[in-house]
Amino acid sequence: MAREAKLRSRRVKPRADANLLTLKRNSAIERYPFDDISTRLKVNVSPRAKRLALRLCPKTRTMNLVVPPRASMKSAYHFALENEEWIKEKIRELPRPVRLRDGAIIPVFGRDRRIVVLYNENLKYTDILLKKDEIIVMTNKENPSARIKRFLIEQTRARITELAEQKCAALGRDYKSITIRDTVSRWGSCSSDGRLSFSWRLVFAPKNVLDYVVAHECSHLIHMDHSQRFWDLCESISRDFDGGIDWMRENAHTLMRFNA
Ligand SMILES: [Zn+2]
Q: Which of 57, 80, 207, 251 is the most buried (most CB within 10 A)?
Protein backbone atom coordinates (compact mmCIF):
# COMPACT_ATOMS: atom_id res chain seq x y z
CA MET A 1 0.00 0.00 0.00
CA ALA A 2 1.14 3.50 -0.71
CA ARG A 3 1.22 4.69 2.87
CA GLU A 4 4.86 3.91 3.46
CA ALA A 5 6.44 7.36 3.34
CA LYS A 6 3.90 8.73 5.76
CA LEU A 7 4.34 5.82 8.17
CA ARG A 8 8.08 6.09 8.21
CA SER A 9 7.97 9.68 9.28
CA ARG A 10 5.55 9.13 12.16
CA ARG A 11 6.97 9.76 15.59
CA VAL A 12 6.42 7.12 18.26
CA LYS A 13 3.70 8.02 20.75
CA PRO A 14 4.69 8.25 24.42
CA ARG A 15 4.22 5.01 26.36
CA ALA A 16 1.40 6.37 28.50
CA ASP A 17 -0.83 6.25 25.46
CA ALA A 18 -0.06 2.65 24.66
CA ASN A 19 -2.99 1.12 26.56
CA LEU A 20 -5.43 3.58 25.16
CA LEU A 21 -4.14 2.91 21.66
CA THR A 22 -4.55 -0.84 22.16
CA LEU A 23 -8.12 -0.33 23.34
CA LYS A 24 -8.97 1.84 20.38
CA ARG A 25 -7.36 -0.63 18.03
CA ASN A 26 -9.23 -3.61 19.46
CA SER A 27 -12.55 -1.86 19.14
CA ALA A 28 -11.61 -0.87 15.59
CA ILE A 29 -10.91 -4.53 14.77
CA GLU A 30 -14.25 -5.56 16.26
CA ARG A 31 -16.06 -3.18 13.96
CA TYR A 32 -15.17 -5.25 10.91
CA PRO A 33 -16.30 -8.85 10.28
CA PHE A 34 -12.84 -10.34 9.71
CA ASP A 35 -14.19 -13.70 10.92
CA ASP A 36 -16.57 -13.83 7.97
CA ILE A 37 -13.63 -13.79 5.58
CA SER A 38 -12.00 -16.67 7.44
CA THR A 39 -12.02 -17.82 11.04
CA ARG A 40 -8.30 -18.52 10.55
CA LEU A 41 -7.62 -14.87 9.78
CA LYS A 42 -5.85 -13.03 12.62
CA VAL A 43 -5.36 -9.28 12.68
CA ASN A 44 -1.94 -8.36 13.89
CA VAL A 45 -1.08 -4.68 14.36
CA SER A 46 2.67 -4.57 14.11
CA PRO A 47 4.73 -1.51 15.10
CA ARG A 48 7.42 -2.53 12.61
CA ALA A 49 5.12 -3.14 9.65
CA LYS A 50 5.39 -0.73 6.79
CA ARG A 51 2.57 -2.06 4.68
CA LEU A 52 -0.50 -4.22 4.81
CA ALA A 53 0.44 -7.82 4.24
CA LEU A 54 -0.98 -11.32 4.49
CA ARG A 55 1.34 -13.91 5.97
CA LEU A 56 0.57 -17.57 6.28
CA CYS A 57 1.74 -19.27 9.47
CA PRO A 58 1.73 -23.04 8.87
CA LYS A 59 2.43 -23.77 12.52
CA THR A 60 -0.68 -22.08 13.90
CA ARG A 61 -2.62 -22.65 10.67
CA THR A 62 -3.54 -19.00 10.55
CA MET A 63 -3.32 -16.24 8.02
CA ASN A 64 -1.92 -13.17 9.71
CA LEU A 65 -3.11 -9.85 8.45
CA VAL A 66 -0.22 -7.55 9.31
CA VAL A 67 -1.38 -3.99 9.84
CA PRO A 68 0.98 -1.03 10.25
CA PRO A 69 0.09 1.05 13.33
CA ARG A 70 -1.12 3.97 11.27
CA ALA A 71 -3.11 2.11 8.64
CA SER A 72 -6.86 2.34 9.15
CA MET A 73 -8.74 -0.81 10.11
CA LYS A 74 -11.09 -0.06 7.24
CA SER A 75 -8.31 -0.27 4.67
CA ALA A 76 -7.02 -3.44 6.37
CA TYR A 77 -10.47 -5.03 6.17
CA HIS A 78 -10.89 -4.17 2.51
CA PHE A 79 -7.43 -5.49 1.74
CA ALA A 80 -8.37 -8.82 3.35
CA LEU A 81 -11.74 -8.84 1.60
CA GLU A 82 -10.10 -8.36 -1.80
CA ASN A 83 -7.92 -11.37 -1.06
CA GLU A 84 -10.66 -13.56 0.45
CA GLU A 85 -10.40 -16.34 -2.15
CA TRP A 86 -6.63 -16.43 -1.95
CA ILE A 87 -6.74 -16.61 1.87
CA LYS A 88 -9.20 -19.52 1.78
CA GLU A 89 -7.16 -21.35 -0.80
CA LYS A 90 -3.92 -21.02 1.18
CA ILE A 91 -5.59 -22.26 4.37
CA ARG A 92 -7.12 -25.19 2.46
CA GLU A 93 -3.75 -26.11 0.97
CA LEU A 94 -2.05 -26.44 4.36
CA PRO A 95 -1.10 -30.03 5.10
CA ARG A 96 -3.33 -31.65 7.72
CA PRO A 97 -1.83 -31.40 11.20
CA VAL A 98 -0.42 -34.57 12.72
CA ARG A 99 -0.54 -34.98 16.49
CA LEU A 100 1.92 -37.10 18.38
CA ARG A 101 -0.48 -39.70 19.70
CA ASP A 102 -1.43 -43.34 19.50
CA GLY A 103 -1.89 -44.54 15.92
CA ALA A 104 -0.27 -41.54 14.24
CA ILE A 105 2.23 -42.39 11.53
CA ILE A 106 5.18 -40.04 11.54
CA PRO A 107 8.36 -40.03 9.48
CA VAL A 108 11.38 -40.20 11.76
CA PHE A 109 14.75 -39.85 10.04
CA GLY A 110 13.07 -40.60 6.73
CA ARG A 111 11.18 -43.70 7.80
CA ASP A 112 7.45 -43.85 8.54
CA ARG A 113 6.81 -45.17 12.02
CA ARG A 114 3.56 -45.72 13.87
CA ILE A 115 3.18 -44.42 17.40
CA VAL A 116 2.00 -47.25 19.64
CA VAL A 117 0.96 -46.11 23.11
CA LEU A 118 0.85 -48.83 25.75
CA TYR A 119 -0.85 -47.30 28.75
CA ASN A 120 -0.33 -48.79 32.17
CA GLU A 121 -1.22 -46.77 35.24
CA ASN A 122 1.14 -48.85 37.39
CA LEU A 123 4.24 -47.72 35.51
CA LYS A 124 6.57 -45.39 37.42
CA TYR A 125 7.68 -43.44 34.35
CA THR A 126 7.36 -43.28 30.59
CA ASP A 127 9.72 -45.30 28.46
CA ILE A 128 9.93 -44.79 24.70
CA LEU A 129 11.63 -47.01 22.14
CA LEU A 130 12.40 -46.15 18.55
CA LYS A 131 11.84 -49.34 16.53
CA LYS A 132 12.17 -49.97 12.82
CA ASP A 133 8.51 -49.31 12.02
CA GLU A 134 7.13 -48.18 15.36
CA ILE A 135 7.64 -45.86 18.26
CA ILE A 136 6.65 -47.79 21.35
CA VAL A 137 5.48 -45.59 24.21
CA MET A 138 5.08 -47.36 27.55
CA THR A 139 3.50 -44.83 29.80
CA ASN A 140 1.44 -44.02 32.87
CA LYS A 141 0.29 -40.76 31.30
CA GLU A 142 -3.09 -40.47 29.67
CA ASN A 143 -1.70 -37.98 27.22
CA PRO A 144 1.98 -38.66 26.54
CA SER A 145 2.25 -36.24 23.55
CA ALA A 146 4.58 -33.81 25.28
CA ARG A 147 6.71 -36.73 26.41
CA ILE A 148 6.89 -38.09 22.84
CA LYS A 149 7.92 -34.65 21.61
CA ARG A 150 10.70 -34.55 24.21
CA PHE A 151 11.87 -37.98 23.08
CA LEU A 152 11.99 -36.80 19.46
CA ILE A 153 13.90 -33.67 20.48
CA GLU A 154 16.51 -35.89 22.15
CA GLN A 155 16.69 -38.10 19.05
CA THR A 156 17.24 -34.99 16.93
CA ARG A 157 19.91 -33.72 19.27
CA ALA A 158 21.80 -37.02 19.22
CA ARG A 159 21.69 -37.37 15.44
CA ILE A 160 22.58 -33.73 14.77
CA THR A 161 25.48 -33.84 17.23
CA GLU A 162 26.84 -36.92 15.49
CA LEU A 163 26.53 -35.25 12.08
CA ALA A 164 28.00 -31.95 13.28
CA GLU A 165 31.01 -33.77 14.68
CA GLN A 166 31.60 -35.50 11.34
CA LYS A 167 31.23 -32.25 9.40
CA CYS A 168 33.45 -30.30 11.79
CA ALA A 169 36.14 -32.97 11.60
CA ALA A 170 36.06 -32.60 7.82
CA LEU A 171 36.28 -28.82 8.13
CA GLY A 172 38.93 -28.79 10.83
CA ARG A 173 36.76 -26.44 12.86
CA ASP A 174 34.88 -26.82 16.14
CA TYR A 175 31.42 -25.69 17.07
CA LYS A 176 30.73 -24.26 20.49
CA SER A 177 27.31 -25.66 21.27
CA ILE A 178 24.24 -27.22 19.73
CA THR A 179 20.76 -26.12 20.69
CA ILE A 180 17.57 -27.77 19.50
CA ARG A 181 14.72 -25.28 19.24
CA ASP A 182 11.04 -25.07 18.53
CA THR A 183 11.35 -22.34 15.93
CA VAL A 184 8.87 -21.30 13.31
CA SER A 185 10.98 -19.30 10.93
CA ARG A 186 14.37 -21.02 10.81
CA TRP A 187 15.53 -24.58 10.40
CA GLY A 188 19.04 -23.90 11.52
CA SER A 189 21.42 -21.12 12.40
CA CYS A 190 25.05 -20.51 13.26
CA SER A 191 26.23 -17.59 15.38
CA SER A 192 29.53 -15.82 14.79
CA ASP A 193 30.93 -17.45 17.94
CA GLY A 194 30.10 -20.95 16.73
CA ARG A 195 26.80 -21.73 18.40
CA LEU A 196 24.66 -23.96 16.20
CA SER A 197 20.93 -24.27 16.57
CA PHE A 198 18.39 -26.41 14.78
CA SER A 199 14.65 -26.98 14.70
CA TRP A 200 13.52 -30.21 16.39
CA ARG A 201 11.17 -30.80 13.44
CA LEU A 202 14.13 -31.75 11.27
CA VAL A 203 13.64 -35.17 12.85
CA PHE A 204 10.77 -35.56 10.33
CA ALA A 205 12.96 -34.76 7.32
CA PRO A 206 14.69 -37.46 5.25
CA LYS A 207 18.22 -38.38 6.35
CA ASN A 208 19.99 -36.77 3.40
CA VAL A 209 18.10 -33.54 4.11
CA LEU A 210 19.10 -33.48 7.77
CA ASP A 211 22.66 -34.13 6.63
CA TYR A 212 22.50 -31.16 4.27
CA VAL A 213 21.05 -28.79 6.89
CA VAL A 214 23.81 -29.69 9.35
CA ALA A 215 26.45 -29.33 6.60
CA HIS A 216 24.98 -25.92 5.79
CA GLU A 217 25.20 -24.58 9.34
CA CYS A 218 28.65 -26.10 9.94
CA SER A 219 29.91 -24.44 6.74
CA HIS A 220 28.91 -21.12 8.31
CA LEU A 221 31.57 -21.78 10.94
CA ILE A 222 34.01 -20.89 8.16
CA HIS A 223 32.01 -18.58 5.88
CA MET A 224 29.34 -16.47 7.59
CA ASP A 225 27.75 -15.56 4.25
CA HIS A 226 26.11 -17.31 1.31
CA SER A 227 28.97 -16.67 -1.09
CA GLN A 228 30.09 -19.11 -3.78
CA ARG A 229 32.93 -20.23 -1.47
CA PHE A 230 30.32 -21.05 1.17
CA TRP A 231 28.18 -23.12 -1.21
CA ASP A 232 31.22 -24.97 -2.59
CA LEU A 233 32.30 -25.87 0.92
CA CYS A 234 28.79 -26.91 1.92
CA GLU A 235 28.52 -29.14 -1.14
CA SER A 236 31.87 -30.76 -0.38
CA ILE A 237 30.69 -31.93 3.06
CA SER A 238 27.06 -32.79 2.14
CA ARG A 239 25.99 -36.29 1.29
CA ASP A 240 23.30 -35.07 -1.09
CA PHE A 241 23.69 -31.34 -1.59
CA ASP A 242 21.24 -30.85 -4.49
CA GLY A 243 18.68 -33.23 -3.04
CA GLY A 244 18.85 -31.50 0.33
CA ILE A 245 18.42 -28.02 -1.11
CA ASP A 246 15.56 -29.08 -3.37
CA TRP A 247 13.73 -30.92 -0.62
CA MET A 248 14.01 -28.01 1.80
CA ARG A 249 12.81 -25.54 -0.82
CA GLU A 250 9.74 -27.57 -1.71
CA ASN A 251 8.84 -29.40 1.48
CA ALA A 252 10.27 -27.65 4.52
CA HIS A 253 6.92 -26.05 5.35
CA THR A 254 5.32 -29.51 5.65
CA LEU A 255 7.51 -30.20 8.70
CA MET A 256 5.36 -27.69 10.57
CA ARG A 257 2.37 -30.03 10.51
CA PHE A 258 3.77 -32.13 13.34
CA ASN A 259 2.81 -31.03 16.79
CA ALA A 260 2.55 -32.36 20.31
ZN1 LIG B 1 22.89 -20.18 5.65
A: 80
